[in-house]
Amino acid sequence: MPSERELVKKITRKLYAKKNVLVKAGEDDAAIVEIGGKQLVFTTDIGFRATHFPKQMSFKDIGFKTVCVNLSDLAATGAKPECILASVGIESRMKAKEVQELARGMNKACKKYDASFVGGDTKKARELTVSICAIGEIVEGARALKRNNARVGDVVCVTGEIGNAVCGLKILLEKQTRKKNKRNKNKTRKTKHAKLVHAFTHPIPRVQEALVLSKQCKRCAAIDCSDGLLFTLKEIADANNVKITIHKNKIPVSKEARKYAGENRLNEKQLLDTGEDYELVVCMSEKDFGRVKKKIKLIEIGRVEKGRGVIVDGKQTQTKGYDAFLV
Fold this sequence. Notes:
The chain is α+β, with helices and mostly antiparallel strands.
């Protein structure tokens, strides 16, 4: 079996698309289709209990996260969320109240980010399976953010901290292997590492930041780093035939993540390249960066240069990122 990305390339190579499809399947974080004079953005993502949701996550947390993951893809294109649909495969052992909790979590995320929850589908399944379709719009006067918009000389920046989520995932997986207290079964437990666990269970889709970028920048490349920061940088570098040079001391890693990683044999590469952070990685002109950083939080970590690949502290780096087929 090829990697997930190799398979996606094979599948999307000759898919039928009408002329109004501005960004086709496989070209970016989401597809962009012009309908009635508007640019609508479509994305979908699927998650499975065995590979995506640690047993320590509550059903409400699962619902919340699955919506946020999709809204993050909309944000990566600069789109304003409009609505979501949810298709859920339900295990026979699940109780009605647990399915309701799942839906409440989805609805909570929809309310928070102003996306209407307009329907979906339910079926019986061998394991809990959640598939979300999110639809957004590039608002009037804005420009879509595309991964192939980077240019030599651009500032490379991120919208927030990297590495918190992978620490949170590790904490949940460690708890999962311990003897479970039946009373707390299937509920995310309180922990002294609450910030790290919360980063995994409640990712923040950078919707507002993306709307500012799409309105304020003449040209801007963006991808969320859900598959790992270093891998995301490579995706941008490859899409634009450029080299991206970054400096580790500029990457925002929280003191909580550094402390946990140091105490639990989590190396720096794992912190930076495991994924699940959902921060935006952005490449923009120095002029736009100087202006936009006054409106939203942007942390400069490097520059776009002539060449190929990703350079970290002067050394070429190899990265695989997250691959669902290797889990």
